Amino acid sequence: MRRFRFAALALLSFALYGQPKPQDITGWDKIHxxxxxxxxRSAYAIDAQPETHDDWxxxxxxxxxMAGVEMGVQVGAKNGANGITLARLxxxxxxxxxxxxxxxxxxxxxRAALIxxxxxxxxxxxxxGENFRLIKTVLWTFPSxxxxxxxxxxxxxxxxxxxxxxxxxxxQ
Length: 172
What we know:
Helix content: 10-25%
Strand content: 35-45%
Structural class: alpha+beta
Number of domains: 1
Radius of gyration: 17 Å
Oligomer: single chain
Shape: globular
Order of helices and strands: HEEHEEEEHEEEE
Low-confidence stretches: 8-16
Distance between the termini: 42 Å
């Protein structure tokens, strides 16, 4: 499995080598900041209705694979704001419901793919959280969007944790 991931990462690196890095990004995938939840439902052919939680209207999209890593996807519009301002992708590892083969190593795979696409991050940090959890963050910033990837990994059970990738509109 490691050889496959390494080969996939090498192939991705070769394919993306030399491509210009974006000066700005204004959303994620088919989502553009400011589009309505109804427009997102239509763009992704989602039948499910959005849910409202803590002043957010949230729409669950179909899972995607990013750099070979299976991730859940949700977009959100803060109630009272002008449309969608957040796209959140996540992957859990070490749970019975986790995608097959999901692991903490996916963080490094995603980090490498995002560096290839967006260039060097603006900030990286590693620290210990509650119960000595390892928390790693990587941040890319653009005029219209910030991209924050976070790994939370259990210390006593290193095969247990999650990866969150937030694309957030800035200045909204």
